[in-house]
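Two proteins, back to back. First:
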Amino acid sequence: MTTAYLPSISWWRNWLNEEMPEIDVNAPFDKHLAMNWCNIDAPNGELRLTVPIQKLENKRQPVKDIKISSHGDWQHKHWH
């Protein structure tokens, strides 16, 4: 299975249906697959939460080599 930030119910269903679920840490990071972002319902409508990552070394960089960036106040936004 791929990683996900606040994954959907269907992701959790798949996880629970696996006999021995595993995260593929060697899979290439893909910013289009919600590996570092999610949408949540907020008082003013849908809100996208994104965990910033450091610049990728290459386009096929494995998930296990991704580093979270400390840039900005993203953590504060996520807690509120």
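And the second protein:
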Amino acid sequence: MKHLKRISGLTFFVAWLSLITTVANAAQHRPPTFHGHLRSFTELQPIEAAPLTPMYTARGGVTNLRRYRGKVVLLNVWATWCAPCVYELPALDRLQAVTDEAGIAVLAVSIDVEGMTKVAPFAARLDLKHLTVLTDPTGRIVDRLNIREGLPWTFIIDRQGRVRGYLMGAADWDSADGRALLNYYAGLK
């Protein structure tokens, strides 16, 4: 009987050790935490393909997210009338300045119905030199990304074109924690 208790105790110990190892390994494969001003970054499950809705460039061309395959994309949806968005844009500009070589694209997509007519002079006043500013005056991106309330919303899209997570509200994306989150998805240390 004592022998059986020893075996079951050993079995319990091995199972417990296995559980602890599994939890530790799972924690290592999770992105670092990142907190915005109102909420935290949320991973999406299941992972879905990013929408390929048309977006308009500053030069009047049309593009979509397929152009950025192979890069990690930080996609920020904003508007000129949104105060938290305006606060966040300079941080996104600074972030793009230091991440371009790392295969990370920072895209700011305005949903202003006036399109570049309103957005281009606004971006110039903010002196955004590195940030790719696009527009979606029809708001299709809002529908496809299921944006339900308020702005800004920021999404991380992996190199395969899949939306990995989002953050609602403004954040300091150029902070060490913001860069660590992007580096996680870019596979950088």
